[in-house]
Amino acid sequence: MKIYYGLIGAGGFGREVMSLAQLQLYDELYAGGAELFFVVENIKNPMTVNHYPVISLEDFLCLPAPRRFNIAIGNSAVRKRIADICLDNGAVPFSVRAGNVVIMDANRIGDGAILSPFVTITSNVEVGVFFHANLYSYIAHDCVIGDFVTFAPSVKCNGNVVIEDYAYIGTGVTIKEGKKGSPLKIGRGAVIGMGAVVTKSVPPGVTVIGNPARPMES
User: Out of 68, 97, 132, 141, which one is annotated catalytic?
Assistant: First the structure.
């Protein structure tokens, strides 16, 4: 039975992830047991991106089961909306993991993750669904990462940190280690600006920037 894999999103990040997905699925694809597509929500005419076929989300969801999907779109709200559509239509998420990712002991990582090259997850970490960890990011011990969280490249998330759902952590951010029993928390939907150094908890929905990170003035 052929498996149809759809990578939703054909922008810059999607093109990077497609290369990883192709390597990960190489044996299935080479043997003819699978097909791999870019999937875009609204596309009228057939096309290709980097030699991969591009189909609409509607057409992907009309393919016979089994259908597997991942979402290479940085906006967490869009990611959630599309995930719900796919799940409601019987598609099943798959994760994409670069070959040089390091994952140590006693971790739990939710479905639909994208772990880019040189990502490290150490020990006793919990990660929710549809997590993005871009190039050179790491998560240290005893962290809890929520659903639909995005790490841009080179995020340094030290131990005993809680990051709630839909948070966005910008390129080069450093998050100070929390304390056992009193973790540093980044609230639901918070945004941490590029290069920020987070030394204390961030409330839900707040954007912080700088070193040390402070709320951005409106």
Answer: 141
Tell me how far apart the alpha carbons of residues 128 and 61 are, in angstroms, rounded to a whole number. 24
Token code pair at residue 197: 């150094």
Q: What's the pLDDT tens digit per position in 45-69?
A: 879 999 999 999 999 999 999 999 9
Q: pLDDT band at 168, cuts 50/70/90?
A: very high
For the chain, domains (ranges, CATH) are 3-94 (3.40.50.20), 95-209 (2.160.10.10)
Q: By C-alpha distance, which of 20, 65, 23, 18 is closest to 39?
A: 18
Helix, strand and coil content of the chain, in percent to the nearest 5, comes to 15, 35, 50
Is the backbone of residue 54 left (phi > 0), alpha (psi -120 to 50) or beta? beta
Q: Is 141 among the residues known to form the active site?
A: yes
The DSSP secondary-structure symbol of 215 reads: E
